[in-house]
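Tutorial sheet, problem 5. The two components below are modelled jointly, 604 residues in total.
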Amino acid sequence: MSLLVVGSIAFDSIKTPVGSVENVLGGAAVYFSLAARCMGPVRLVGVVGRDFPREHLALLQDRGIDTAGIEVADGRTFRWSGEYFEGMNRRETLSVELNVFERFQPKIPPSFQDSEFVFLANASPVTQLSVLDQVRKPRFVMADSMDLWIRTANQGLLDLLRRIDGLVINDDESLLLTGERSIIRAGKAILAMGPSRVVVKKGEHGAILFTSEGASPLPAYPVEDLKDPTGAGDSFAGGLMGSLALRGRTDPEAFRTALAIATVTASFTVEDFGVRRLLDLRKDEVDGRLRRYASMLRIGVD
Amino acid sequence: MSLLVVGSIAFDSIKTPVGSVENVLGGAAVYFSLAARCMGPVRLVGVVGRDFPREHLALLQDRGIDTAGIEVADGRTFRWSGEYFEGMNRRETLSVELNVFERFQPKIPPSFQDSEFVFLANASPVTQLSVLDQVRKPRFVMADSMDLWIRTANQGLLDLLRRIDGLVINDDESLLLTGERSIIRAGKAILAMGPSRVVVKKGEHGAILFTSEGASPLPAYPVEDLKDPTGAGDSFAGGLMGSLALRGRTDPEAFRTALAIATVTASFTVEDFGVRRLLDLRKDEVDGRLRRYASMLRIGVD
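Model answer (structure tokens):
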């Protein structure tokens, strides 16, 4: 089924304890798309500046990503730079230039307005809500958010939560959003705000899914040679939504499988810098690692 | 099959954000025994002072724990007090009085020397090694350790590692022991030091098992009302060894099931202060939660 993502497209400069890259293709919607396209076609809506090279567009198109929704605006493309430290569970943003993304007003092309699965990558709740006003009758809408919007656009975020089916959010942010002290309580509290599926991401420690049936944890896939955690969360979301759209199912069992695909997709992402590992990632590689992951978690009960 | 544990018996004073208790029964070997006895009989070796009440001994005996190996020495029982802060993933030791535990020289009663499964709870490597010299032909020996011994008794610890089958260790301590920067590398490095099973504990984030087949993660069982994390690791070890001893198997599949039992046992422990929840914990409660846990982790792979 059709899958739409709306979000940032960026140039990233990244430093980790094992290396660095400068001005490479990045952004939440790019990581999402490159992950989700392993499962099926993706429709991408975002904005870039005049400096965005044609080769990057071709690179996305070559991989089954429909770029009809990428607007080219006057100005420079969004730029981000950050550094990860020892252990890579702490990062510092060194600089952010929003550039054309600052005034991003997503325009969903007519050919995308019938999208059945929709992912609203991190953006202001107003921007995210404007997408929902442009898609006709989505079957399943999921969104990401961040501390900035929890602090500065809380009412908009609460409005958004009432209109979406699923939320992915980092552990710290789940506590900030709810004022709870534990993630287990926070996840439950977010369910009460609207979405029927809440996924709290814990970085190297995996994620926890909250539904009306309770909390269920998923550990991260063990990665020996972590190179760059950038985009782990966005490619996780891409694997998740890509899997749901591929199977056209959002029931609990399908959702758990989709979360496992999300987990292994993110594990590939962090094994190289930027989007490098995602570029040539094949579905059979994802499926192979999924089978190993499922077997790691299989527990014999007498 | 027979299961022996050797380790501390203590009086604990514990403060957490939701309450406190003073001078309650605790210690690694006590938590271990009270957890393992849900699976089958346990033989306990430890030392207490003249101040240790007879009722505590009766309480252990009433639960199928053989206390023939508890020595009563002149002096006071080991005392520990600590405080947990917001989120309960950080604790501060307020005071430690080793008392009779300082000169603990485990004497394994003749009736315990044929024990097939042996757990060496946290103690100096010299003390732990002295137990191995007194048990005849154990089938599976597992040990715990801590930062103190890694720093002060490294050679003894390396000697111990060559003589045991399994090690349980905290994540930070695995890094300290190996000098590695990631837990995945650390677990692998510890395998090379001797034991064929290494379990790295990550507190609220679960654990990772390392064997020659690789790393496999297990998330913690989600606990909504965490009251007191004290003894989580020791009751985890008790559930693990209790399950292995009950089934008389240590193959990979049995080990994974045992780790799942360890995980759910620890989840009960932290739901009340000290050993309180463990005192009346029944095997059918553990089994019920085990089934829920196994079903949470079941991933449908097409």
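Marking note: The domain at 3-153+227-296 of chain B is CATH 3.40.1190.20 (UDP-N-acetylmuramoyl-L-alanine:D-glutamate ligase). Full credit if you identified this.
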